[in-house]
Design goal:
Elements lengths: L12 H13 L1 H4 L2 H8 L1 E6 L6 E5 L2 H7 L13 E6 H20 L2 H14 L9 H8 L6 H27 L9 H20 L5 H17 L3 H7 L14 H9 L2 H4 L6 H6 L5
Helix pairs in contact: 1-8, 5-6, 5-7, 5-8, 5-10, 8-9, 8-10, 9-10, 10-12
Length: 279
């Protein structure tokens, strides 16, 4: 499922646990009694599925019975929420971490666009298998060892912090459940984005948190809807039938929330904006 080869770093379940621990101990959550209580009563699971997804929901009897098959020794009485990251998402995070490292090292945004386009065009239900990241690495001749491997790991955990922070935001802000109106759902997603931004900026890992969280959000512009439309136009139009906002405006707002951190980063907000534009 997740492993480490001689040529590349691969995201593991342990990385998810590290990112979750960073979220729980960050000042933004630790200083808020209500947030802290909700996060401490949330259990993190990694589900073996190719879905590029993550969810956070209440621990119902049905969910508990299902999880007992995989986590039989867990005392579920101390948990009220379940945060699940799918292994397909771990592969996507792995790929994005290599893109982050490449941008940081080379500042070649055009090549980074090609990387995202390559992944977006090939990421289907049939091609999200365990060899996806290796094929990506082979395609772009990315060799990872020594210091660079540690940099990729740093970005992988930073991306996971953004991802986990977003899902924790839904729980802490009371978004559990499906809103009747899509407009409410889209607003909830934006609020969870800002929650994730606050989490990432208070974990103290410097600009990695900003770049990791922003690139994660940028990637969903590429992944949402028809791939060719996003790759060609670099934007998406929301409509009343969408439960999630996927427009460039959402990503711009997310990037702007990180502007202070990005000032000292070798990867500027302006450079990240270029990822969303045709060229």
């Amino acid at each position: 499922m997740s492993h480490k080869s001689g040529t590349s770093y691969y995201v593991t379940d342990k990385d998810c646990e590290t990112a979750f621990a960073q979220c729980k101990s960050c000042e933004f959550i630790a200083d808020n009694k209500n947030y802290r209580s909700i996060v401490e009563s949330t259990y993190l699971t990694v589900r073996d599925t190719d879905d590029i997804n993550a969810t956070c929901g209440r621990l119902t009897d049905a969910v508990r019975n299902h999880l007992n098959q995989y986590y039989p020794v867990v005392d579920w009485n101390q948990y009220t929420h379940i945060l699940s990251i799918y292994t397909g998402m771990l592969r996507w995070v792995n790929m994005l971490a290599h893109v982050c490292e490449y941008i940081d090292r080379t500042h070649k945004m055009g090549e980074a666009k090609k990387m995202l386009a390559w992944a977006s065009a090939r990421l289907t239900a049939f091609e999200a298998g365990s060899d996806f990241v290796q094929r990506f690495i082979d395609e772009f001749s990315i060799q990872c060892d020594g210091h660079r491997e540690e940099v990729v790991r740093m970005y992988a955990i930073a991306i996971l912090v953004g991802l986990i922070g977003h899902e924790l935001g839904h729980a802490c802000l009371g978004h559990i459940g499906t809103p009747e109106q899509n407009s409410v759902s889209r607003n909830n997603e934006r609020c969870a984005d800002m929650f994730a931004s606050s989490v990432a900026q208070s974990i103290g890992n410097g600009y990695a948190g900003a770049i990791g969280a922003v690139v994660l959000d940028v990637s969903f512009v590429w992944l949402s809807g028809k791939h060719s439309e996003y790759i060609t136009n670099g934007s998406a139009r929301e409509n009343k039938f969408m439960s999630h906002p996927v427009s460039v405006d959402r990503v711009k707002a997310f990037i702007e929330s990180f502007n202070t951190m990005l000032v000292t980063s070798p990867v500027t907000a302006k450079m990240l904006m270029k990822l969303m534009k045709a060229g």
